[in-house]
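Let's practice the habit of predicting before peeking. Look at the sequence and jot down your guess about where helices and strands might fall. Then scroll down.
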Amino acid sequence: MHAELRAGTLRTGHDNPGSVRVRLGGMTLTEPAATLPARSATTRTVLMCRPDFFTVSYRINPWMHPQQPTDTALAVAQWETLHRTYLDLGFDVRLIDPIEGLPDMVYAANGGFVVDGIAYGARFTYPERQPEGPAYMDWFRAAGLDVREPAEVNEGEGDFLLVGDRILAGTGFRSASDSHAEVASIFGREVVSLQLINPSFYHLDTAIAVLSSDGPDANIAYLPSAFDERSLGILRELFPDAVLATEEDAAWLGLNSFSDGHNVVIASRATTFERDLRARGYNPIGLDLSELLRGGGGVKCCTLELRR
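Done guessing? Here is the structure:
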């Protein structure tokens, strides 16, 4: 059918998701639509922290405006929707108790980086968040993980993303570049250093979304303007089929998402990203975490994967 199409052929719509109606001369024929890739979901184990004490009382990133009131009850309600979504997807969700006076503890991804049962602890840049590091390491120990206390400044899975067998590592605003060598020595994996240059995307997980982390099909989405030219060259070489995010979707922290390989939980206002994911065979699930965005975090920030 494809080889017989001539100039003047008009696609007229869809009979069903697997076919396309084509008008050729006076006839309307049906041809197969492009086959979407088969995506497989993998059950995930994640750690979360309920935002019972969430507020914005200081400013350590461009998203935070202490002069604007926050609604803790709304933040909790939005977080509970995310928590329920993970449970509905069959995830094993673990909880760490929030601590009064640590309003950013809800952003669990920053609390460490866990691979192969080893938990590399966080050592935060700003004094306001530094007590979170020991709190998360205490939880890791109680959960039976092999805890490695950091010598270098790093903010956990905010700046370390596992994609296939390699670790993408961000620097520029929060995690020190020296932490990349520390991570490589602890996990014995290739670590790829990437330089962030836009302060609005101060953690790697605000500029890169890991869509699939398993096997040869491992892939990402990213925002090109968040990186310097050297880093862009690396990303283009490693992930030639990556999804490129729009500035508009990134402004809603659309890339701060979490995927199980098929289902991708994203910011509901990242509509172009949603469309692009569907076109690649993923199942995007849009949620409103707009109150937690006031602190500079979204879906992924609230989610620390525990890889045993």
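How did you do? The longest helix spans residues 72-88.
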